[in-house]
Predict the 3D structure of the following.
Amino acid sequence: MLRWLVPTLVYIVAVGALGVTSKLALRTLQWPDMILWSGVGYVFVAAVLLAIGQTKLEIVTGTSWAVLSAGAAIVGLVALYLALGTGEASKVIPVSAAYPAVTLALSVSALSERVSLLRVAGTGLVIAGVVVVTAAR
């Protein structure tokens, strides 16, 4: 079964809402405030996961990738908040959705995943959509 589908749909809704809720918050807050509150949320979730035994704080194989992923998430959020602070959410979020091009290239080079013509075409359509959204007034 497609066990990945429901979490992916939740992600789509959450990220879609993130652009609007962040833009609303940035009317009165600055991007450092946004990072602070995001951090509070992460600390809460981490504390719950630790408390219920779903994880433990230890350095094992793969920890460096987890730290790098956390760093990428932090840099991405800061950049997103900076962009939303100056740009329209209806442009910033669709343009930020061009990341599949980066994921495609990295998954081929770092994970040795095979790339198909359809995936390349789909990624091209995403980029074309970004161009259309950016050009629209």
